[in-house]
Amino acid sequence: MNLVKNFLSWRVNNILIFIILLLLSVSNFYGLFTNKFYFLKPDNYIFPLFSIIHFIYLYVVWFKITEKEMPDPKMRNLEYILYAVMIVYVFKIYDSFLILGSTSDYVNSVIPATFMPMAISILILYCLLALLTLVSFWYRKQLIGSYNFENYNDNLNLWM
């Protein structure tokens, strides 16, 4: 982890996650096989809705680190929700692998020239998102602290 810490600061990590979430939210509406955007499919809105949770978590981590605040129960609950969202990210990685593996099923069909570059870039972005999210959890534990609420009132200083 020291290599990651030297290479990737918490700010750069949060900015990269933010950019990746934006790119994946837009690409979620993109149809790889048809080379068109589909805004009327309700399935395409699932990832952008889950990414809102991730955006809120990024904001909370940024705020807690810059203001040197301690973790609170709301932040813990948000992180636990983000653990569940990570399952969605793993599913999207699996789904991207399935789409890449299905190219041999469509040999007789016309596949757009943008299929492979877009599919590979989306797969890489999903893998980076999962990896950088885990790094974000590590930075939260290192810079903000662990969730120890047994002595929460002892560490609470309302005058600062």
The radius of gyration over CA amounts to: 19 Å
Name the beta content range. under 5%
Mean pLDDT: 88
- Give, in spatial order, the strands making up the sheet with the most strands: 1-2
Main β-sheet, in a few words?
A: 2 strands, antiparallel
Coarse shape: elongated
Q: N-to-C terminal Cα separation, in Å?
A: 32 Å
Query: Could you give the count of β-strands?
Result: 2
Task: Please write the string of helix (H) and strand (E) elements.
Answer: HHEEHHHH
Instruction: Quickly count the domains.
Output: 1
Helical amount among residues, as a percent range?
A: 55-70%
| Uncertain segments | none
How many H/I helical runs? 6
Helix vs. strand class: mainly alpha
Keywords: Membrane, Transmembrane, Transmembrane helix
Overview of the molecule:
- By secondary structure, the chain is an all-alpha fold.
- It has one domain.
- 68% of the residues lie in helices and 2% in strands.
- The chain has 6 helices and 2 strands.
- It has a two-stranded antiparallel ribbon.
- A hairpin with a 4-residue loop joins β1 and β2.
- α4 runs antiparallel to α5.
- The longest helix is centred in the C-terminal third of the chain and has 30 residues.
- The protein is elongated and about 65 Å long.
- The model has no long low-confidence stretch (mean pLDDT 88).
- Keywords: Membrane, Transmembrane, Transmembrane helix.
